[in-house]
Specification:
By secondary structure, the chain is mainly alpha-helical. It has 32 helices and no strands. Among the domains are: about 120 residues, Tetratricopeptide repeat domain (Serine Threonine Protein Phosphatase 5, Tetratricopeptide repeat), CATH 1.25.40.10; about 180 residues, Alpha Horseshoe (Serine Threonine Protein Phosphatase 5, Tetratricopeptide repeat), CATH 1.25.40.10. Helix 3 packs antiparallel against helix 4. The chain is elongated and about 100 Å long.
Length: about 575
């Protein structure tokens, strides 16, 4: 994550932290340091301590889960998941990840339940659907199972060993086990498992080859037909998808997701005669606005106008947003989900490629340009990010987050006048949060417009009165205006929030020196040294104050001490 986005995350997260007890925050911050250095054994008890202090500390629960998983303590991760779900019962990721943990523990019924709950939250999530299908196949009666374990031939033994590794999530090792076998293979499942390993490893072309090898042994192999059909469907190779999905459908005609993809492959492949009966059956059964929409388009192409209008009316009724652009929105959703998955995995370049492809088809969608800009920031290309954010506000003049992002880019480039203008536009567009006012104030401060910056910092404090940096910034603005009493008051407020905020206490000393209060400056400088004996500017403050009081020997001693600690003060 770039420093800019990290700053945004910390500022947004600060409100959550401040809602917790101080002891919980202290334990959490200590745990984070160990977690970031991968010392999970030390971090876990500290996260537990934070939860004990503040049981509703959601992020501490999430971090504790991650520690247990990193240490392979899945038995401890499960209750941690369940505790987190009490705080966030509608969190898709918690349900989905708990399901994966149950899968590793081979607790199939529990995994199935969590996946079903995750799909209640996000019914179209591809990963959850695939995981649920795999579990349902595993739990099916033995004669219907695609993957069977009781085998004894040499290829079966290699298969069983690979299957055990696959179920542990060791996909590379599982594939290596299959690759190492040099004898004759007579079971389609062997190549099907190999294809699954390839897919899990992201090697799509290799997976297709193995699915085809499985079908060469058994052309009715259900899962090979189904999975390969979905791959071709996603490639928009609808003709090839139809043939495979038709074969799969003959085996399992009650499988809703299979029927849906087959129907859509007919429609998108311009075979509306075959698409219509499937859509006519599925749309009412699933009460899907998307399927009603495609059914209406199919009926229109078949010249059945009145039926088409009726289906479209139902689609609009089912569409909760009130803005029926389902064909575009579904396409955008697929692009968005894929880009999001790449971004979540740190594959920002892949996310960029997906979003650029989406923009080529939907160039007027502001959200695509904005998300593309965010991904360009992640790879350090601020010029292209700036271009995308500018396009965003051109298409959506009230897009506050785009103005904020443009402000950040210009601020980092030290173009403070433009940064101030963008942050002001962000606020006017409705993003009137503490961070926006703080960034506007920071830009104005850099322009030496201290009176205006002070007003912005005051507004930031009104939005979030518990952020020490806001008081510090306001103190600096008053200091530059020679309003020393107000400056001191705000530095003291920053210190009240964090007694070890050394810079705030040092700037109180600066105010004292400016107003000839040298004894007060000496007293505060000594307080700084008690907290941080190596803070060079505190000794410089002592040197300057003693010199003004005529204590030249002391002044010289403290000056030399300051220079030893920081030669740049020479």
């Amino acid at each position: 994550m770039t420093p800019k986005l990290l700053l945004i995350s910390l500022l947004l997260f600060s409100g959550t932290l401040l809602a917790q007890k101080k002891a919980a925050i202290k334990a959490y911050n200590s745990a984070l340091q160990y977690y970031q250095s991968r010392d999970y054994e030390t971090a876990a008890p500290l996260f537990e301590q934070a939860i004990q202090e503040s049981p509703d500390f959601y992020y501490a629960h999430r971090s504790l889960i991650s520690c247990y998983e990193q240490m392979g303590q899945l038995d401890k991760a499960v209750p941690a998941y369940l505790a987190a779900l009490k705080l966030a019962p509608d969190d898709f990721d918690l349900h989905f990840n708990l399901a994966q943990t149950y899968i590793q523990l081979e607790e199939w019924a529990a995994a199935k339940k969590e996946l079903e709950q995750s799909l209640d939250i996000s019914p179209t999530d591809r990963k959850a659907l695939q995981s649920l299908e795999q579990i349902e196949r595993y739990l099916a009666p033995k004669e219907e199972q695609v993957i069977q374990e009781e085998r004894s031939s040499p290829s079966d033994r290699a298969y069983n060993a690979a299957l055990a590794l696959y179920r542990k999530g060791e996909y590379l090792q599982a594939r290596s086990q299959l690759q190492a076998f040099s004898g004759q293979v007579s079971q389609a499942d062997f190549y099907y498992l190999w294809a699954l390993c390839d897919q899990q490893l992201g090697e799509r072309v290799a997976a297709i080859e193995q699915y085809e090898a499985a079908l060469a042994l058994d052309d009715r192999h259900f899962n090979s037909n189904y999975n390969l059909g979905i791959l071709y469907y996603n490639d928009e190779n609808y003709e090839a998808a139809q043939a495979l999905l038709e074969t799969a459908y003959q085996r399992q005609p009650k499988k809703k997701d299979l029927a849906k993809h087959l129907a859509l492959s007919y429609y998108l492949g311009n075979n509306v005669e075959k698409a219509e009966p499937f859509l006519a059956k599925l749309a009412p059964k699933l009460q899907s606005a998307e399927l009603y929409y495609y059914w209406s388009k199919t009926l229109m192409q078949l010249g059945r106008k009145k039926e088409s209008e009726k289906a479209l009316a139902t689609a609009k009724k089912l569409d909760k947003s009130g803005e029926l652009q389902l064909d575009i929105q579904n396409d955008l959703a697929e692009y968005g989900q894929l880009a999001s998955e790449h971004r979540k995995n740190g594959n920002y370049q892949k996310a960029i490629e997906v979003l650029e492809e989406a923009i080529a088809k939907h160039s007027e969608e502001a959200a695509l340009h904005f998300n593309l800009g965010l991904n360009y920031l992640e790879v350090g290309n601020s010029l292209k990010a700036q271009k995308e954010f500018a396009k965003t506000v051109e298409l959506a003049p009230s897009h506050a987050k785009a103005y904020s992002a443009l402000g950040d880019i210009h601020y980092q480039a030290e173009k403070y006048s433009q940064a101030a203008a963008y942050f002001k536009a962000c606020i006017e567009a409705g993003m009137q949060d503490a961070y926006s006012y703080y960034q506007l104030g920071s830009s104005l401060y850099k322009l030496n417009r201290f009176q205006e910056s002070a007003k912005s910092f005051e507004q930031a404090i009104a939005k979030n009165p518990k952020e020490k940096q806001f008081y510090f910034a306001l103190g600096l603005s008053y200091l530059r205006q020679k309003k020393n009493d107000l400056s001191i008051q705000n530095f003291e407020k920053a210190l009240a929030l964090d007694p070890y905020f050394i810079d705030a206490q040092y700037h109180i000393c600066v105010n004292y020196i400016e107003t000839n209060r040298f004894l007060d400056a000496i007293a505060d400088a000594e307080k700084i040294i008690e907290k941080d004996p190596k803070f060079a500017k505190a000794y410089l403050t002592l040197a300057h104050s003693h010199k003004r009081l005529g204590n030249l020997a002391k002044a010289d001693k403290y000056r030399k001490k300051a220079i030893r600690l920081d030669p740049s003060l020479r």
